[in-house]
Structures are given as structure tokens and as C-alpha cells.
Amino acid sequence: MNNKTKNAAFAYSYLFPSAFLTLVLGIYPIAWAFRYMFYNYKGYGTARFIGLDNFTRILQDIQFWDSVVNTFVYAGGKLLLSIPLSLLLAAILNRGLKGKHLLRAVFFMPTVISTAVMAVVFFTIFNSYNGILNQFLIKFNITSSGIDWLGPKHAMLTVILVAVWGAVGNYMLLFLAGLQNIPEDVYESSALDGANKVQQFRYITLPMLGPVMQMVIMLAIITALKGYESIMVLTEGGPAGKTEVMFLYLYKLFFPLGGGSATQVQEFGYGSAVAFVSALIVGMISLLYFYASKRMNRID
Amino acid sequence: MKIKNILGNTVLWAFLLIFGLVTLVPVVITILGSFKTNVELTTGATFLPSKWHFSNYSEAWRIANFSTYTMNSLIVALSAVVGTLLVSSMAAYVVDRMDFIGKKIYVSMQAFTMFVAVGAVVLRPQFDLMVKLNLHSSLWGVILILISAHASIFFILVSFMKGIPKDLDEAAKIDGSSLGRTFWRIILPLLGPGLGVGALFTFRGAWNEYLLPLVFTMTKPELQTLTVGLANLKYGISAASQTHYMMAGACLSILPILVAYIFANKSFMQMTAGSLKG
């Protein structure tokens, strides 16, 4: 064996565990979904090829499109609250402040804790009946009876607030990293020209943060659109589907929840088609944002 | 001007403190709540426990099965860390130091798995596959799937690998060291900081993972991890009388990662900020 083939053999043998695992457990499942989205397959019996029938069924599936609308409300709410808040925190912490390292560590803390575990905790806090928050609201006479935080009227808001709690620290840190790349002398010279802090923020920080902002918002959009773990534990998509988001609906097609509304059955073929359409929706919105933000940058 | 400054600073600090409190309170509530009785938790409206019930932990540990859940979480998280670091450091070494046919395809495949979001659909074929291999009746199925999702750690290790001078490889080669020996004896020890960051992140991900162990252990309580066991308490018939176990269980899950965070918060944050450039 000459040196070259020996080296190649070494390279492939070291690459093998990684490539094999990725192919079998990462790529194959996606290919599986690609195949079964054209089939009628419920997990038992034989799978029957039905062409595009699953996709015409999606077009008429009101529950799915409701979940798409819910996803947009959820993602929109999460973004509108978390992005400005995290940018503001980052801008404040970027100015040499006493205790900024401690504050930064505190704000980032939620990102290291399990979403599912925090959803359980938030459930005991927001629980409409014996929830900790309602106990205090009643104790201090802020409300006479508890607020139905997880009821049909407020559930979406609650779910969004929980998501914002978990996300702000992460985006703050990314913004902070971007802000630290803006040279200090730009601020100094603008201060000499008499610019105040707000003007500096508007005319220096925001434009110079452009690319980072674009990336963070993109990341936030994708995460918000595909997130469902916390909602699943907190509300299971309820009450009456009020917080059912796209990827939770999808999850239930593969693993029906044993909860109150056990009308759902396994739908592997149809579920694969829903997965494809959902992934397409996420992809299209990200692309749309990407081009829109690029154009906005150019106009600036 | 001076008054305006003081006013501005006050508003600024009030905002920071309020937001800091909002961030901390849910975790503090969990820690304090884990020492309260169920009645105090559900009706008491107290901040500090009126009496500290340390027995919540021993009861949760024994009666509510949290000893099993903790053990399973540890097994899953530690195995995932070792496996992920091993698999991705070997791949990162050959990808960064050698040229071979198919390298580009391999790298794009890793990038692809990072960016495609198809949700729970992948869990199904993964589960069926593990049933066929008879790996679904132990935690090995979960561990292997966690290890298979190592794309981000691979890319991090490649960037750390680039920081190790190639002269070292050359010198080792001249001294007659084989490629494998060079990797294990020279490169891997120097990759320490990268492995540390990778370990931290894999541990966090595996320890906090919920959906994957949930799907794999739905009918096997003896294999459930902390996250799954804890969330199941919420669905149980006796859920209303077990809030104190929920809090104690949540603490068991939060505290290890929180302690790690207190000591290594720079590494946690460095990683997130680093992903911006990568």
C-alpha cells in the first residue's frame, strides 16, 4: 500500500463514525419523510401510494391552517417583544456600567435551563386555579378573583411571555457581540460633534449593527416558527387549539397526546406531507425576510 | 443637565433591575418552592417557606422515582458528551488536516442537518430504526441519536483545530509518528479548550433534552430522564397534590446546570457569541 492510499484509508476510517451516524440518523429520516408524504400510511398495515392526495388534504385541513395562523401570532409576538428588549439591554450593557458582567450573566441564565422543565415551573406559576401568580394577585388585592392565564383568552399571551423569558438573554448576547465590533472612536467623534445618546443609537449603532441584526432576527424567526416544546408542556396546544402551533400539530400526527382531546390518530403519511409544507413555510419566510432586509440595507 | 443625568440613570437602573428580577424570580420560586408543602405552594401565597421541608427531596427521590430519573439523565448526558466529542474530534481532524475525495460533500451534509427544520417527523423513522436494532428497550437509542446530531460541535472543533499550528503535525511525522498517534497524543491534548466548550454544550443539550427521551420512553418509566419524569408529574392523576415534588424535581434538573453555569458562564457565553462569527 502506498502512502496516498494509506492516508485516504486513514481519513475515511476517522470520518466513518461521524458520517455513518449522520447518514443513518440525520439524513435517512428526512428521506423517509420525503417518501411517505406520497403515501397513505398510518403506522400499521401496508403503505399505499396515493400521489399528491396528502397535499390536497392539507389545503382543506382547517386545523392545520389554524395552527399556521397561531404560529404567526406566536412568532410575531415573541419577536416584537424579545428583539427590541434584547437590543435595549445589549445597548445599555455595552456602555461601561458597574456590575455589567453580573447583569449579563443573569440575563443569559434562562438559556442554560431546560425549556421543558421551565414550562413545568411556569405551569405552576400561571395555573389558573392554584397558580402562584394568582395567589399573589389576590393576596395584594390587585384582582378579586384569579386571572385565567392559561384559559382561551390569555393562553397565547402567556405562552409568548414564557418564550420571551427564555429567549431575550440569548439575543442580547449576540447583539452585545455585534456592538463590541463597533469602534469606540466613532462614538467619540460624534460626541464631539454634539450628538446625544439617542442620536448616536439611531445614526451609528443601528446602521453599523445591520448585518448582526439581520442574522439575529433571522435566527429568531426560525426558532420562533419551529418552537413547540414549551407550548406542548404548558398547554398541549389548548385550550381548544388556541395555542396549537404548526410544529405541535405535526408532532401530534406522529405521537398523539393522551390528553383530553384524544380524537387524533397516527398519520405518518399525512404527517410527512405536513412536515414538508411546514418546513417550506419556515424556509419561505426566512428567504422573504432575507431579501427584504437586504433591500432595506441597500436603501439605507 | 446634572439632574437630567441622574434621572436618566435612575430609569436605566430601574429597568435593568426589574428585568433582572423578572429573569431570576421563576428560578428563585422553584428553589424556595421545593421546600414548601403542597398546600403552601397552591394556596399559601408566601415567598419564603413558612417551614423548610427538606424531606421533599428525599420523598421525591424515593417515592416519585427521581433517583431513577437523575441516574438516567446522567447516563444519557455523559454518554452523549463522550460520544459526541470522540466522533466530532476525529472527523474535525481529518477534515481540517487532510484532503480526500468527498470532503466537500461531507461538510455540506453536516451543514444541511443543522439548517433543515422538519420537526418531529424524524423521530418516527429514528424510533422504528431503533426497534429494528433492538436498541429501544435501553437508553442506547436515545444516546446514539443525540450523538448523531453533532454538526455544531464538529464545526466548533474545526475552528479550534485551525488554531493548532500545522508545524506540529509535520514535526511529529518527521519523528516517525503515524497519523493516528499524532491525533491522540499531540492534537487531542491541545484541543482541550475546544473539547471543554463542546462538552459543556453537549451536556447542556442532552441534559435538557425532552422530546427525544419522551418519545423513546413513553411506556418505560424506568428509562425516563428528569425532564420526562418531571413533565409527566404534571399529567398524572395526582398532579394537584404533587406540586412540591414538581418543584423539588425541577430543582434537581436545574441545579447541576446552574452550578456549571455559575462557574463557567464565560465559556457558555463565549460559545454563543462565537457562533456569530462562525
Automatic annotation (TrEMBL), chain A:
Keywords per UniProt: Cell membrane, Membrane, Transmembrane, Transmembrane helix, Transport
Stored CDD domains: TM_PBP2
InterPro entries: ABC_transporter_permease, MetI-like, MetI-like_sf
Bilayer topology annotation: Multi-pass membrane protein
Gene3D superfamilies documented for this protein: MetI-like (1.10.3720.10)
Principal subcellular localisation of the protein: membrane
Protein name, per record: ABC transporter permease subunit
Any GO BP annotation: transmembrane transport
Membership in a protein family: Belongs to the binding-protein-dependent transport system permease family.
PANTHER family given in the database record: ABC TRANSPORTER PERMEASE PROTEIN, INNER MEMBRANE ABC TRANSPORTER PERMEASE PROTEIN YCJO
Domain ABC transmembrane type-1 intervals: 68-289
Entry's localization field: Cell membrane
Keyword Cell cycle recorded: no
Membrane-traversing stretches: 12-34, 72-93, 105-126, 157-180, 200-225, 268-292
Keyword Membrane in annotation: yes
Gene Ontology terms: cellular component: plasma membrane
TrEMBL record, chain B:
Subcellular location: Cell membrane
Membrane protein topology class: Multi-pass membrane protein
GO BP annotations listed: transmembrane transport
Matching Pfam families: BPD_transp_1 (PF00528)
UniProt domain ABC transmembrane type-1: residue ranges: 70-264
Name the UniProt record assigns to this protein: ABC transporter permease subunit
Keywords annotated in UniProt: Cell membrane, Membrane, Transmembrane, Transmembrane helix, Transport
Main location, first listed in the record: membrane
Any single GO CC term annotated in Swiss-Prot or TrEMBL for this entry: plasma membrane
